[in-house]
Design a protein that fits this description.
By secondary structure, the protein is an alpha/beta fold. It contains seven helices and six strands, in the order E-E-H-H-H-E-H-E-H-E-H-E-H. A six-stranded mixed sheet has the order 2-1-3-6-4-5, with helices on both faces. Helix 4 crosses helix 5. The longest helix has 17 residues.
């Protein structure tokens, strides 16, 4: 079981927290991380692309000229794909890109992502994050003290003051512990977890 130092928002040590090995010390398998990240990105795709087939193109359905005797190539309608302004053949149609990944695989991938942050010494635990008012300057001061550049900050509960103060700082993203996901963890160099959030995540994934 790993013992990780807990800091306050002024970067002073205030305690130690034990992290469960079944959550923060699992074997990392890149293929599982890749599968879950791919499923997250696929689910974000709108899939609203569409081209017009013959049934959607405006134009007469009458035969432009007779089949034989004109010297021209035979043609059946102005909406034909070989005509300028005609239909498109085999083009993209609306579809759902998402695919299912089992809950156990998703949970395992999140454990692997947390493990990678802990083993890479990119996990920082803080006892709490509090600001007197929602101001970017105040949060920027806290981020500078903690040495945050490209960081994912995980809160135990919704904190409107912190979330509003951090949203204009490049590279910083704030999420609640119940919204924690593999893509965000791997997409940020540093992972900052409020102690309450770490406990909640640990209990959920055990």
């Amino acid at each position: 079981m790993a013992n990780v130092t807990v800091f306050d928002q002024s970067k002073k040590e205030v305690g130690v927290m034990e992290l469960a090995p079944e959550v923060f010390e699992v074997s990392v398998r890149p293929e599982i991380l890749h599968l879950v990240v791919r499923s997250q990105l696929a689910a974000k795709r709108a899939g609203t692309h569409k081209v017009k087939t013959r049934s959607f193109v405006s134009g007469s359905g009458a035969k432009p000229w007779r089949q034989k005797g004109t010297g021209r190539a035979r043609s059946g309608a102005k909406r034909s794909p070989v005509w300028r302004g005609g239909a498109v053949v085999h083009g993209p149609q609306p579809r759902d890109y998402s695919f299912k990944v089992n809950k156990k695989i998703k949970a395992l991938a999140l454990k692997m992502a947390l493990t990678s942050k802990l083993s890479g010494e990119n996990l920082l635990l803080v006892d709490k994050l509090e600001l007197p008012e929602a101001k970017t300057k105040l949060f920027a001061g806290v981020a500078g003290t903690l040495g945050l550049k490209k960081a994912l900050i995980v809160l135990a509960d919704s904190n409107n003051t912190v979330e509003l103060s951090a949203r204009n700082i490049p590279g910083i993203k704030v999420v609640r512990q119940d919204m924690l996901n593999v893509y965000d963890v791997l997409g940020h160099q540093q992972l900052v977890m409020v102690q309450g959030a770490a406990q909640a995540v640990q209990e959920r994934l055990k």
